[in-house]
Amino acid sequence: MPQEIELKFALPGLTGEESLARLRRHPLLRRRAMQQVHLINRYLDTPDGWLRQQRCALRLRATQAVGSAAAQPPRWEQTLKTAGQGAGAWSARGEWTVALKGPRLQPQALLATPLGQQPQAAQRVLELQARYETRCLRTTWTLHLRGRAVIEVALDAGEVRAGHRRAPLLELELELLRGDAAALDEVAAALATTLPLLPARTSKAEQAQRLADGTWGAPVRAQGPTLPVGADPLTVARAALADALGQLCDNLAAAARSDDPELIHQARVGWRRWRSVLRLVRPWLTEPVPDTTALRALLQALGVLRDLDVAYGQTVPSWGEAFVEDAQQHPRRARALQRATRRLRHAAQQARAELRTQLSTPEVVAPLQALAAWLLRLTPATVPVEPGWAFERLRRWHARLKRQLRHGNASPAEAMAALHAARLLAKRLRYASEAAGHAMPAKAAERAQQWQRRARGWQERLGRWRDTVRAAELLQQLHADAELVGFLRGVAAAQHPLQPQG
Fold this sequence. Notes:
By secondary structure, the protein is of the alpha+beta class. Helix content is about 50%, strand content about 20%. The protein has 2 domains: about 5-215, Hypothetical Protein Pfu-838710-001 (Beta Barrel); about 260-495, CHAD domain. It contains 15 helices and 9 strands.
């Protein structure tokens, strides 16, 4: 089967012109010939989304050179791609391409691919029509790496179109033309010293489809891996960690251009899922996890912004009416609440700007690609794996969480620390249970689902209390009205979690 192997990256915070200028100055590319062409990709499907249901994309592509050769008519080709398999930015997909004389579909060539084996394929092919398209300027360089590999570096800058809707398109692709696929990561690491290469798993066709159905730039939630019962730690790790890393990166890419607070929340969920699953499978890992120290600034920026978003958008508004009681009788309280809200909004705007600065910094986002490359290198553990490996680790975490919540007569500082640790452990138990639950036998999976529900309940309960505590802390840092700060502290004291029963 013909196969396309590539890495794909978003370039947060940059324009097409800035990206091109940085690439042209990079030592790997500055002495190599550069080619530019205009690309039009028209994506076809049936009105009921038949190809999308098959996880396929069909495009008609027009390619026209830039410059003196632009007078030549565009070259057309037809390409069918199957769904990619990989992690983070990396994907390997089936691909079938034929040359065309013009922008007209060749049904027989399409039926000669595996798609032709689908029920009623001949009839469904006749129903195909153009649904959306992308238009971009593609700049390419071809790298010959000492006989090991030949790689094409391609920068695409343009837009996605679906009906009257438009969205920007800017991405970098590294495609393996020949040789060892490991060379792709080496080239990516070299380019990441100059460009903020954020792993991207969404194809152009998927971006166009999301624009068409109104979900372009929407928060990306966990998909949850489909795993066979009895899956070993490596299988769980590859599926669950790939989805978690994709969730993190997809939401970060959208957060670089959107103020939707849910993007920040889902990005942090993606990172928590990554860490939780990593803890679950750690005893069976055969290679050290890459150092993520350089990610701390980005993760801290996410945490600060999330705290401000919750305080501004949820906690303070939910208790504001109770604090003011009656604006006519307590006008000072009403003014204090308004001032506090403005300060939170301004602080959130500053934090969002700081996050975007982090996302556009090459060395900050580079570890994310290192994680994706590490995930692909994972090999099966050499030590025996017990059938109940996941259940046993989750059982121990559940018991530990129950012990952590029994803070009893501890001092306030000790109780606070214990509850914070319990909240983190509840998240770990929840996300790891969600990842590995389908790989367990029915009885064990049912028990794990009970733990998962309890962990979710503990997480939400502890989270509401923590959000109120944090809102009071933020307002004090912003020099908000002392009475409002004291009121929220009183609410937090009333919300203080007690030891759960059962």
